[in-house]
Amino acid sequence: MGDGGSVSDPWNFAQNKKTLLGKILCIDVNTMPSGNTTAGWVNYAIPKDNPVSTDPSFAP
C-alpha cells in the first residue's frame, strides 16, 4: 500500500503503527478464518506467522 504522499514519505506514515498507509498487508487467501469474525463474509485469514498480528500496538 502506498504512503499517501509524495516522494520519501514526508509524513512518516510507514513508521506510524496507527495507519495502513506505507505498509505491506500480509493475508492468506488460501485459508478460511476459524472461529468468530467481526468482519462478516471473510475469504482470507491473517497468517499465524505474521509478526505483528498479536501486537496490540498495531491495532487500528
Radius of gyration: 14 Å
Separate helix tally: 0
Q: What structural class should be given to the helix and strand makeup?
A: little secondary structure
Beta-strand content bin:
under 5%
User: Uncertain regions: pLDDT < 50 for 5+ in a row?
Assistant: none
Give the overall average pLDDT: 72
Largest sheet entry: none
Portion in helices: under 10%
Extended strand count: 0
How far the N terminus sits from the C terminus, by CA atoms, comes to: 16 Å
User: What's the shape?
Assistant: elongated
InterPro entries: 6-blade_b-propeller_TolB-like
Characterize the structure shown:
This protein is low in regular secondary structure and 60 residues long. 0% of the residues are buried.
Using brief descriptors, characterize the structure shown.
single chain, 60 residues, little secondary structure, 6-blade_b-propeller_TolB-like
In brief:
The protein is mostly loops and 60 residues long. 0% of the residues lie in helices and 0% in strands.
How are the SSEs ordered, and which strands pair?
Layout: no helix or strand
InterPro entries: 6-blade_b-propeller_TolB-like
